[in-house]
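The instructor's notes for this session suggest beginning with a concrete chain rather than abstract definitions. Hand out the sequence below and ask the class to guess, before any prediction is shown, which regions might be ordered.
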Amino acid sequence: MHPSQAPEIRPIAIATLDEMRERIRRKSRLKGRQADDASITEVRALIGLKPEAGHRRDLLIEHLHKLNDAYRCLHDRHLVALAKEMNIPMAEVYEVATFYHHFEVVKGDEAVPGLTVRVCDGLSCELAGAQDLLARLPALLGNADVRVIASPCIGRCEQAPAALVQQRAVPFATLETLVYEANRPLAQVGNAQEAINFVASEWAEKSLPDAAGQGAPAYTDYDSYRAHGGYALAAAVVNGEEEAETILKAMEDSGLRGLGGAGFPAGRKWRIVRDQPAPRLMAVNIDEGEPGTFKDRVYLERDPHRFLEGLLVAAQVVGVQACYIYLRDEYHDCRAMLQAEIAKLQANPPCHLPLIELRRGAGAYICGEESAMIESIEGKRGEPRMRPPYIAQVGLFGRPTLEHNFETLYWVRDIVEKGPQWFSGFGRNGRKGLRSFSVSGRVKNPGVKLAPAGITLLELVDEYCGGMQDGHTLYAYLPGGASGGIFPASHANVPLDFDTLQPHGGFIGSAAVIVLGQQDKARDAALNMMRFFAHESCGQCTPCRVGTAKAAGLMETAVWDNDTLEDLNIVMTDASICGLGQAAPNPVRCVQKYFAHEIGAAA
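After discussion, reveal the predicted structure:
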């Protein structure tokens, strides 16, 4: 066809000019829920106006705490406003807020209880009657505005059964005391006691003094600590009067190992991090969530500055630029006290100080794992990292990081001043050093026992705990909390220390010793621990997330399906990312090995 004969093609308008303009306007609008002015104003009142450089991403959890404290929950409208103020995706804020047990996200202005009572259902508290409290307390309170919930171990096992009324600790809780605490004002009563000079080394081979009934016992404040020679060592190290190499040698010669559970030699760790490129950071673990463990709390609430001085010495020797202290949320009184004492130290420093920041956990046991703690300090979900690289090389904010448990740093001053032989001179059965045993359960005198490494369970109970409770005889014990396994009374002569329990299927960990009597069952203790693991699994890896829940279900039956349980044990041990899933099978295997009579047909 000739071009002149082609039919004329006219353009057809698919939209008017006004319609096109409306489409452009719609596309330019922000997607998703937008922050309202009232919510932005409320968020700003708590976290402050946006700094010129913007809000720090790592302070997300701290900001969530401020909202949660003020409103007793996290309203979704506040999360939207917080995301806008911090310039991070709403999905990121939401996934962090919903990860931690102490945060509760609610839609709109949904009503939340005015008061929350958390009753610990950890093993020690369960032995002391926690389940009865949980069953009877709601009816006694008789108030829809009061919520009673079970809580994992709150670190007060020597005061079992223990509870928290909002953030106020209630030791040796009874129905009467909890009803009383729930009905009195929530204002925290300040510690009006006079300062003391608490010297931990004076309690070597003794039981630490009992603070029964005291939510916040008397402690060594900044002025008292300085008046008794405190911070002289830190100042000498910072000012070059004490050689870093001398300090390092003392740490190595003392044999001090990480007292959070891993047991890595402290001096060697200092050298490893010191050899990494600057800037280097420090992360201190006071999350102390292992069921049965409370030693860090007991030391902290009596003498915070001995720990802080150890932190300063380590920071100077290793060349640390900034220190981040991660304290579990359940230790409210300790947090208030530590904040005040750090402020005193910074206001009148004995020497140059590194940056020191105190961070608040939010109820996640997994954050006791070093890399999960680092993720949490960075304001993220507390999920363990894959390794390598190890945090000594790539840790907090991507920098080489010295990670330590609270108690490890607590002994630095004593070891350097008294000499490494002072610490290594203690010990029994061929072991060296001191161990702080958190003892609870069926003993007359529970508490922290500063005993020689290598002491046996029988010696610990008889010499430090006043023996078994009346009406109870030793039946079994857990040497290392939930993770360390369960042993029968026939193993009560095995030395308690690093590396001594592994041949028997357990380990000492943080030295959380829970003692069972003949009226108790090891299978019930193992089930309590497995339910704890299932509740506290971060969910990142399937073997742990699914394995712990499946195992808990199987362990509820009268007769255990040992073949299926062992299949789960193998998968959790071999394929879990971190120690939670890897250690979860320990109590199960111990019951199968040592208490088979409890899980057979006659159980």
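Then share the key points. The mean pLDDT is 93. The radius of gyration is 27 Å.
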